[in-house]
Amino acid sequence: CGVFGVFNIKEASKIVYYGLHSLQHRGQEGCGIGTFNKDVVERVRGEGLVTEIFTKKNLEKLKGNMGIGHVRYSTSGGGGIENTQPFLIKSHRGNFLVSHNGNIINGDILKRELELEGSIFNSTSDSEIIGHLIQREEGIFIERVKKALNKLEGAFSIIILTEDTMYGIRDKNGLRPLSLGKLNGGFLLSSESSAFDIVGGKYLRFLEPGEILQIKKEEISSEKYRKDTQNKMCAMEYIYFSRPDSNINNLNVHSIRRKSGEILAQESFVEGDIVIGVPDSSLSSAMGYSDKSGITYEMGLIKNRYVGRTFIKPTQEERERGVRMKLSGLESIIRDKKVILVDDSIVRGTTSKYIVSILRECGAKEVHVRIGSAPITSPCFYGVDTSTRKELISNRLNEEELCEYIGADSLKFLSIEGMEKAFGKNLCLACFTGEYPTEVYGLLGGDNE
Ligand code: 5GP
Ligand code: SF4
Ligand code: MG
Question: Which fold has domain 2-231?
């Protein structure tokens, strides 16, 4: 998912709209914006893309200079309008809005407790729990939020908006990103810094794990709501999720991906005529591979715009149709060439298998697949739908078998050490290593055994 917040900037809903538009790659199932105009709160939400849900007319309804938004990518909880965010919590102590990116890993336990105490949930999303927990606590608002946060386990970057304050929060492992920016004397929060550029804002800094930032009038204050923090941001943000023009932890995503491609070339060089990347997420690493290997970078695959990200479409059939609609091969570039194809990751193997077949149809002499990350063998419980262990192809097939399955002449993955060299050491790599930075609350049973 993607979250975006605007504080003290006129026509806030328009700024949120542009922010969400530039975060659309993070989730396409639903979106929403909520604003405060003094104590009047308004919301527009729907299932679909940002450009489908918002209109000039409904944005005008969202008045005031404070607003937050959300683009949804469903992992737990499923679809439906009631699961789109921001959530609105209504209370005699004041209303507030919540946007959340991530996954609350002890959500089921907390929800059961809350329901026994009388909370009524309007959605099946784990994100709604945050609001109810805050609601149940006593004290001034920030103290209630901090108490609630200390009960949550898992991945969460959260933006909360009350009638006079905006909060930005990251979980104690910093699993999901969140950045602070400014614009015209007001402030912005965003899953990705590239959204600041789009609205003409300026990036200020990346939030810390376990941090709660409070933005009130022109003042910003920050504290740690817990001490036991560590930096374990999701490696997939660098590999796949984030836009190349985003900076994470002051590092530019494109440059980092490029470096991973260079390391990939060092680790698994192969003779070839051209290097091509799979648009968009693998172009940077393909450039790095080309640089380091001295083999020409070419544009061999063209992406059909306006088709959503394949992975985010829930069923396998939809996913396959999605891939087919999404890419075309450039025959004049590919014919009779030894092609090195760089992709960012293999999850179920659908994409690689299909792209190798496109390249063969276009007359490639050889196809050597190089992957800019290690084999994914463990499920993610932190809000990325890499699915169950059973569905992960690298769990069933070793490198050689997988090479045959996708129909390539050779296949190599980047090593874990290579990933650490490119992306840094302080990252969550659980889906590659099985070492989870949090307790997993029995989630490793069933299809995940
Ligand atoms: P597969 O087709 O092997 O199941 O998925 C891998 C492909 O899906 C890659 O090309 C990658 O760019 C894309 N992809 C889309 N969403 C995700 C995601 O959430 N995680 C990962 N690792 N890859 C994704
Ligand atoms: Fe990211 Fe993988 Fe960790 Fe999930 S398990 S947060 S996808 S690195
Ligand atoms: Mg891809």
Answer: Glutamine Phosphoribosylpyrophosphate, subunit 1, domain 1 (3.60.20)
